[in-house]
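Q: I have two molecules that I believe assemble together. Could you output structure tokens for the complex as a whole instead of separate predictions?
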Amino acid sequence: MNATQASIADLAKRTRRAAKYRDENRRPWTFWVLVALFAAYVLALYGPMLCIYVLSFQDLRGGLVFPMKGLSLHWFVDLFTQVRTGDVKGGFERSIILAILVTVLTVVGSFMAGLAFRRRFRGDGIVFYLMIGSLVAPGLVLGIGIGLLFQYFGLTASWYTSALGAQLSWTLPFGVLVMFAVMSRFDRAWEEAARDLGASRWQIIRMIVIPILAPGIVAVALFGFTLSYDEFSRTLQTSGPLNTLPLEIWSMTLNVTSPSLYALGTVTTLASFLIIGVCLGAIAVMQKRRSNQSGSQQ
Amino acid sequence: MTITTGDIELAGVYKHFGGMAAVDGVSLKIPDGAYCCFLGPSGCGKTTILRMIAGHEDPTGGEILIGGEDVAGLPPVQRRTAMMFQSYALFPHLSVRDNVAFPLRVRGQSRAERFKVADAMLEKVRLTELANRLPGQLSGGQQQRVALARAAITEPRVLLLDEPLSALDEQLRIQMRTELRRMQRELGITFVHVTHTQLEAIALADIVVVMEKGKIKQAGPAREVYAQPHDRYVAEFLGGQNVFSGKITHVNGSSVTVSAPDASAIVVPLMGRSVVRGGDHVDLAVRRDDIHLRRPGLTVEPGWNAISTRIRTIEYQGAFVKVMLDTIGEAEFVAYVPEREFFSDAFNVGDAVAAAWPAERSLLLS
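A: Yes, here they are, computed for all two components at once.
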């Protein structure tokens, strides 16, 4: 057998082997190891939360640990009727209002910072690192500092002043970073073209910049809202006499020993998912409308 | 003040970017309704000139007049200019119709009103069926037509085009080139077109402006710039010429004799230039399609220049054959031979030949 025949035979063998892989759609064993690893990760991520949701649906006999005793909505009713469980309703209201305030300020602030940082300006590096600094500073320390400062100036700390500021020190840098990523895909030629075609500055912002960046702006809002809604460390020392929801839950874990605590967990999670769902839905609708505008009217 | 005509005058225009002169004293007149191409390599200042005419950049010095009016400080709309951007800059969130109607929207026209005008314009550029599409769903050529329609809808007197064909592939580029020229004739307005492709410039323009390092090297009709380049830079940039340097050995009233490293006694007409002396170093150009190849030993017609040389490579180009010959000094030496003529007595690589051309076709460069 000469060299050419040998190489042809080899080629045929390799072709058959490749075909076999294709036919059986076989995956290498490493694939299954990684699948197992990922499954374990997902379980570790959602397992503990699922335990809480499941245990919140027990009846009157229910306790804080497995096994599950009965099935009812008793502890949800308890949550909103019993006084001893703490000021859940008030905490929830305050958290929502605070989150909305934080969201609006974060969106407006990040958008303007995003516009400003498209050009270099004197001291832009310092401003940027100062901002990142407040992101990496330990939240508890930052919160204590704000609390101290308010005391020093004789101001009353409250959830809508000192806590609002403390939360913005967290959400604003986050929002700005997301905005940078969003802005980086914005072509300045669009603005220039709009100007060339006679649009005023305000018209450019309203008709070009905001609509094009809209999905990104919703993403920033979503960040602002969820970061604020479950913020704990920065709010702890700055919320004043009235608690936000996370603080209320935390204080309840210290003195409430019934599954109503779990019921609370379930309710707040639902609220979070609802808001995230609405935001993602909004983004999806926006994108769909863009691509539909085309086909439907023809 | 209203601008009614699209003639442009640049008077000593400068533009500095932090000490660097991007545009270095440019003066030029472009008549109303002309198609003018700025041609040059990237960084030569041609786009900056365009942006200054458009009002997106303010000159550091000098004056820009459109329709006889000084437009310093005026926004684009009042200059009656419209710009077509390199990447078209179509608004990605608006349909084709909304894109084209955008200039009317910002002027406060009602939906019905502006859509009527936009639809008429879309018909002109043959995009009616695509009116509801988004820019992302269009091909490059279609996008360009939308950009053109959007720029033209405000009835500008001057349309400024920044490398309008560079985003298209070869075939489409030639097609859109024709379309641009057609639109320019139809609209009857001044087009100022920036490009780095010489073929594009000479195919389209009434006036070709060749630029280098912020300065105009030569401006004139396409044929003049191509066939009578003023200097080495223009000749080399537009191509189609053999350019080489030599030393004047003899001056004779109406012509000079030049000798180059690998060629002697090339006769070049003076064409009114009298500032040359024997011993001067000069650049000269001969069009590649003026070169005739002869078998060695054949007599050359009187009044012709001939250089003995050798064939290096032969490239078939369809309509003609590109024959590369031994260099003259360091300069490329190329002959474009009509296809039929070449194959009636084909040469081979390595053949010794005489490259000959009528002496009066040589061009002395400054």
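A: One point stands out. The interface with chain B takes residues 187, 189-190, 192-200, 203, 207-208, 211-212, 290-291, 293-298 of chain A (CB under 8 Å).
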